[in-house]
Structure prediction request, 503 residues.
Amino acid sequence: MLELLPFPFTWVLLGLCAVLLYLYLVWPYSAFKDVGIPGPKPVPLFGNYLSYGKSVGQFDRECYKKFNKVYGIFEGRQPIMMVGDLELVRDITVRETNNFTNRRVLEGQGEIIAKGLTMLKDEEWRRFRSAISPAFSSVKLKQMALVMEKYADNFVDNLDESAKQDAMFNMKELAGAYTMDVIAGTAFGVDVDSLHDPNNPFITNAKKRFDINLFNPFMIILFLFPQLGKVLLHFGVTLFPTEVIDFFNAAVDNVINMRGGNEDDAKRVDFLQLLIKAHNEELDRGVSHELVKHGVSKKAIKRESVLFWLGGYETTSNVISCTAYNLALHQEVQDRVIKEVDAVIEKRGKLDYEALMEMPFLEMCVNETLRMFPASQRLERVCNKDTEIKGLHIPAGTVVNIPAYAIHHDEEIWPEPDKFKPERFSKEEKEARDPYAFLPFGSGPRNCVGMRLAQLELRFALAKALQKFRLVPCDRTVVPIRIKNTLSNQIEDGVWLKVEART
Prediction:
């Protein structure tokens, strides 16, 4: 039979392989076309990933505007439904949250990241969230403020040294040391004193964790060949340096061991102690989470502690740095903040938790910075069952992304979106605007659990600084600020400023 073919059988096999390869490369790219959802044209194998070269935020802004807020893109062969319509955002993150509880897990990140709170699913996530939420109540935050104030004073002491020497300094470095000290002190009861030691191992290791961008070879593998990430993980190769995770694992072990049977430690109300109190030994023995409805395992305590320590470092220091940058470039705005800080201190006699709650214009400046530079440029959910919202059919298993950065720069919602205008967050403007147009810490039950701590922490640093100094640009100030090509808003090359003592 084969002898009847007009060409060798080898060529038939090659042709068949070529057809199968072609189908493998292009088959997923009809996913959105079949249901009438528009989007940019994908490239075989890469999808739209190469378009991230212009930055994810810029790519999202262009697509959001061109395709009327709802569109489909591809990361490699993975379809991603992008949803920027605010009514859909509300329904996905709040009203239909039970259908959109989880996030996508990328293989190859390592167990600590892949099984952290942000990646936990369904009941396991709810269990953990309920265990740690009490750490961020108003009562607990007031108690943490006493510790935070100490580190804010150290932050100001560093500024004082720069002022005396008339020296330029990198606000990102200084803010990073401050946030590391705060997270160590408030969440773990440890004094690492990074502000007095720029080469502190906590800082050097945390920096390594965030020294990555979307075109890192390993990152490309995770997005384009996710199964290969699992293979590399089997051989101990992960996206994030293992020495960083090992360092913070050891640090958490030390703190837990120090708290052995000490009665005073048992009375603590910080993040770690709440997890220790929630410890359930049944989970350590491998009993199913479905059978044990309460508590967390010892392994989970360590995992979440490492992630919280690392997560508390980067995001907040970015916001402090970007807000300081905005105030330095807009002296008239800084004048208003200084006037507010002075008035509240004169009224109360000190700068404490209650005083910070009476500074609405400072809050407006922070919120406007978060609008321009949201902690995450996208919010992700995975649809767990077929869902219909406003005529949009979302099949089970669909990865849904909300382009927060694009929404925050929508000219119809935020006129002149690239300009720093704190007045956008006045009481009147906030009441007139859709609340889902501002998503700096996410939305709904899966928003950032530590956002209140972060807001208090950065207000303390800024208010304490402006009580004594004026922030000004210097020769090394880069305008506009440069952001690394990541899904978050990490600053490229730091934020260089100077301070002048107030007269």
Summary: The chain has a mean pLDDT of 86. Residues 127 and 294 are 7 Å apart (CA to CA). The longest helix spans residues 298-329.
